[in-house]
Amino acid sequence: MELERGPEPEGCLTAAIRIPVRIVVLVVVLPVRMVWDALSWTGRQLYRYLLAPLGRALGFLAMAVFVWPWVALWRYVVVPPVRLLYRWVLTPFGCGIAALVRWTGIALGWFGRTLIGIPARRLYRWVLTPLGHGIAALVRWTGIAFAWFVHYGIVVPAVWAYRWILTPVGHAVTWAVLGLGAVIGWLGAQTYRFLLKPLGMVIAALAWWLVACPFIGLWRYVLVPVGRALRVVGREIVDAVGVCWRIAGYISRAVGRGLKWLGWNLVGRPVRAAWRWSYAYVLAPAGRAAAEVGRGVRAALRSARVTVRETRREVWWALFGGQAQAEVREPVRARARTLASNTTVPEAAPEPEISPFGRNTAKQG
After folding, report:
1. Among residues 310, 306, 328, which one has the least CA distance to residue 318?
2. In Å, what is the CA distance from 57 to each residue of 50, 136, 139?
3. Positions of the region Disordered (predicted)?
């Protein structure tokens, strides 16, 4: 069982490279991270307050313009006539066609059985069956004759030729090929032993000393140390980028919070205080004063209306005598008022208004 290896010890070169690399990377990464955070915040705000509402509005508009009219057209214009057409036209027509096809099939079946089936059965029984038996017997005897001819005219001569001609010739050719192969194999073995093998050893030695040894030395004493140094530098750069990205995030977040605090204390708080003061000391009193003025104006208009009505009635009596024709209008329900206050209460029970002309005069009007 092999022991687990711990982390490799760091040398002085690593410690000497790490701090300058991290400082340089922090200087390079900090503006990028701040710009990235600003763009991310801007994108989130745009999506939340502009793109998402705009998308919902466009979706609703698209549904209202392109979907709902077609749905309504399909549901209330196309479907009812099609349903009525299917129920009162297509269904009876289809039932009639089905009945016509069924009775036509019955008639065709009777016609086929009566005019075609019976003659066809008789033709098959008394004509085609004997003719088929005769043709089968002819084909059987023809096949027997052909098989006898093939056996004694082709197979037997072919077997004799294979046994007494082709087999001896094949054996002779086989022995000749084997002898030639043995001679060629012996020549090849001798050539390999005394020519190719020594030549290959010489070429291998030359390749080892002229190619492999310089390459191994270059790899072992040049490329490996340089690669290790580059690996250390690359690892430190990657670690520095990660650490500096996090540090830049903390710095960017702190800067953002500071800007938020400054904006709130320099702009937000004064604006909120001004709004509260203006609402408490300007808008609310102005609204209450406008409400009081509106109530006074409505009361004055109501009194003027009653006065004009009574004056018109008095003029009518003076000119024409008698009582004037009562004006047909909707009954007006007065809103009750609380004691010692001019504010109407919707929940209180309604009471008649107090008129300076008296109840009888109001009834005559």
Report:
1. 310
2. 10, 86, 88
3. 339-365
Reported as a pLDDT band with limits 50, 70 and 90, residue 362 is very low
Token pair of 357 as six digits: 């002309």
Does residue 57 register a pLDDT over 90?
A: yes
* pLDDT for 347 beyond 70: no
DSSP code of residue 322: S
* In contact, 350 and 336? CB cutoff 8 Å: yes
**pTM for the whole structure:** 0.36
Half-sphere exposure of 304 (CA within 13 A, CB side): 6
Q: Confidence class of residue 344 from pLDDT cuts 50, 70 and 90?
A: low
Pairwise CA distance, residues 352 & 342, whole Å: 15
23 close to 237: Cβ distance less than 8 angstroms = no
SS3 356: coil
Placement of tokens 């017997």 in the chain: 137
| Rounded mean pLDDT, 158-165 | 86
pLDDT of residue 16: 65
Cβ-contact 252, 34 below 8 angstroms: yes
CA 12 to chain centroid, in Å, comes to 54
Cβ partners under 8 Å of residue 252, min gap 6: 30, 33, 34, 37
Residue 237: C-alpha distances to residues 68, 179, 195, 242, 243 (Å):
59, 73, 58, 9, 10
Confidence (pLDDT) at 357: 45
Structure tokens at 291: 């409400």
* pLDDT given for residue 9 in this prediction: 52
| H-state helical runs in 47-90 | 52-62, 68-73, 79-85
CA distance 294 to 296: 5
Residue pointed to by tokens 């009574």: 310
Q: What angle is formed at CA 282 by the lines to CA 278 and CA 287, rounded to 5 degrees?
A: 125
How far apart, in whole angstroms, are the C-alpha atoms of residue 83 and residue 93?
14
Task: Say which amino acid occupies 227.
Answer: G
pLDDT tens digits for 96-129?
999 999 999 888 888 877 778 778 887 888 888 8
